Amino acid sequence: MANLKPLELKWGIIATGRISGDFVKDLLVDPKTRDVHDVTHKVVAIGSRSVDSAQKFIETYIGGDKSVKAYGSYQGVYDDPNVDAIYIGTPHTSHYENARDGILAKKHVLCEKPVTSNAAELRSLLDLAKENKVFFMEALWTRFQPLTREVRRIADSGVLGEPVLMHADLAFDANIDNIPKTHRMLDPNLGGGALLDLGPYPMIWAIVGLYEHPSNGFAGPSSVSGAMVKTPITGVDSATSWTLTFDKSGMQAQANLTVSMVIPSNQPGVTIRYRKGVIKVASPIFCPKWFEVQYFDDNGNVWKEEKRTYEYVGSGWHFEADEVARCVREGKLQSDLWGWDKSLLEMETFDEVRKQGGYVYPPGVEKVV
Ligand SMILES: NC(=O)C1=CN([C@@H]2O[C@H](COP(=O)(O)OP(=O)(O)OC[C@H]3O[C@@H](n4cnc5c(N)ncnc54)[C@H](OP(=O)(O)O)[C@@H]3O)[C@@H](O)[C@H]2O)C=CC1
Ligand SMILES: O=C1OC[C@@H](O)[C@H](O)[C@H]1O
């Protein structure tokens, strides 16, 4: 790797909201600060519904760099021959159309979470990515952070035995009594609610902890059971709980997952309980900075404990960007770490939990059913 000339991936950014700014700040961090020498990133185009917003974004985040093109439409970015890959930072319910248009223009795509509004939209995008031979990935940034890779390595080593039970929780206070009903967290037309916005994070930990565990062998859950609390403000879920049972291939384990957008604390994080120990991952679970492992003796007493902490320049979104660049360099259509099967498991789970919870999108939201 270190001997290769670094690949410079040229990015076009779709939308100028909060997460696009966070992502671009991380793209501009020198990869060497995280010991990455095989890929680099360059932002070459910004697309917005308003050219003024695109220009303002360039001034705010890219120091007014005149070489970056500002477009008053997303299509301008898709059509720009200088763009290799697009990053989609629009609300959930636009992801399908933005990704489709980008793929049809033969751009590689990194699309924010949740990747689509439902599993049918995602399946349609995966077919299109295959047909057009472009890389496609949901921006589940947590999966690429060094902490998550290390949790996987320890679990894979077998030292903790099989997983049995896990809990992953993410909550924050979205101030729903005071934001407009048209805000993306509240508006069902924008896929509002806790499940779609926060649910990808408990899911990534269930996938890392149970689905990916060697004794499960990537078998899907045998059951999904969920319940929702709906806010009277717009009817979207303010809190949701769901349970996944993994017992199709020898391992017998359950994930209990919870999200809320009305609690101002994101404790308790993630706990994965194995037959011979436990891994506790700190909150916030989308970008934890430490985890600890307890090792049990034959009587279930702790005989060893260790804690690992992580620090790096930037906020943690650059690791997913590095993964995109490496996959593009290798001609891959999907990532080994967050492949299409995982986004599909996430979206199929959300479809089922919404069905059980009685959350029906308004007509026209789902572009593929
Ligand atoms: N990975 C992470 O850590 C995070 C991921 N996210 C994900 O990113 C996506 C965007 O979230 P966030 O940045 O907070 O949202 P914002 O509301 O801050 O920004 C969304 C942007 O999308 C564009 N847009 C296009 N259509 C619409 C529409 N109908 N209504 C509003 N905006 C629209 C706008 O950009 P323009 O005017 O330039 O076209 C807008 O600025 C969500 O899917 C969310 O789940 C969000 C936060 C953190
Ligand atoms: O991805 C996210 O992570 C952090 C939350 O604040 C945000 O609402 C969500 O979109």
UniProtKB/TrEMBL annotation:
It comes from the Eukaryota. Residues 149-279 form the GFO/IDH/MocA-like oxidoreductase domain. The keyword Oxidoreductase applies. InterPro entries: Gfo/Idh/MocA-like_OxRdtase_N, Gfo/Idh/MocA_domain, GFO_IDH_MocA-like_dom, NAD(P)-bd_dom_sf. This is D-xylose 1-dehydrogenase (NADP(+), D-xylono-1,5-lactone-forming). Its EC number is 1.1.1.179. GO terms for molecular function: D-xylose 1-dehydrogenase (NADP+) activity; nucleotide binding. The keyword Nucleus does not apply. It comes from Heliocybe sulcata. Belongs to the Gfo/Idh/MocA family. It catalyses: D-xylose + NADP(+) = D-xylono-1,5-lactone + NADPH + H(+). Keywords: Oxidoreductase. Gene3D superfamilies: Dihydrodipicolinate Reductase, domain 2 (3.30.360.10), NAD(P)-binding Rossmann-like Domain (3.40.50.720). It holds the Pfam family GFO_IDH_MocA. Residues 10-137 form the Gfo/Idh/MocA-like oxidoreductase N-terminal domain.
